[in-house]
Specification:
Length: about 230
């Protein structure tokens, strides 16, 4: 790709949202490099002492100094299982790749939407709820717990919604996605299951509109969707 500037998409090969972004970049004739992180062991990675870093696939080779901006969208851990390693060796290999990814993210600097470190902080839902309350947003009554008794009072005002603290995907042979779920009664909560994994419970509020807001420096882009 030479010295051509490009966009780096850090994602996974099953992410449909990133597929739409790829389509739009192609429509605008903009150069990009899609890094599906689960395929990292199939990539070539080279970093020289003078700081030049190269990523390569059978289809393309780029240098990180070509990256105009990076887009971070739900990357997955590198898949090393097909190399028939022992469980401990697989874990070691996966962690080494993850460490390398972190180094790559830092090398790109601030040219991210959004920076991976900031996304990690933003995924702390408990902290985000605290921030929202401090700056004046109306936050529904919330309980984060692994004890059924702590949720009883929420139901005095009607239905409750339950959601995971972070991960919404259960991997394995039978993958499952955990969505925000409506809970009509305290009796619908299985006490033993809740003991194993804590969850977020909130008083259900009726929505009239969903807002999606993107802020890039001083520019604000907002889309409203009626519910």
């Amino acid at each position: 790709m030479g010295g051509l500037e490009l966009f780096l998409l850090v994602t996974n090969k099953r992410d449909l949202t990133c597929d739409y972004i790829v389509r739009e970049l192609r429509k605008r004739s903009l150069s990009f490099f899609r890094l599906n992180t689960e395929d990292l062991p199939e990539f070539g990675y080279l970093r020289k002492p003078e700081g030049e870093t190269t990523l390569s696939t059978p289809d393309a080779t780029i240098q990180l100094n070509q990256v105009r901006a990076g887009y971070f969208r739900r990357p997955l851990p590198p898949e090393v299982e097909k190399f028939n390693l022992s469980p401990s060796s697989s874990q070691y290999a996966r962690e080494e790749w993850i460490y390398l990814l972190r180094s790559l993210y830092l090398e790109i600097g601030k040219r991210w939407l959004n920076h991976p470190n900031h996304i990690q902080l933003a995924e702390d839902k408990s902290k985000q709820l605290n921030y929202a309350q401090k700056i004046g947003f109306l936050v529904p009554e919330t309980v984060i717990t692994n004890r059924k008794d702590d949720v009883v009072e929420l139901f005095s005002g009607g239905d409750v919604v339950a959601k995971p603290l972070k991960h919404s995907l259960i991997s394995g042979e039978n993958e499952k996605v955990i969505y925000t779920s409506l809970v009509h009664s305290i009796d619908d909560i299985e006490e033993d299951s809740l003991k194993v994994v804590p969850a977020i419970f909130q008083r259900k509020i009726e929505k009239s509109v969903d807002l999606r807001v993107v802020v890039v420096e001083n520019d604000v882009f907002c889309v409203a969707r009626a519910c």
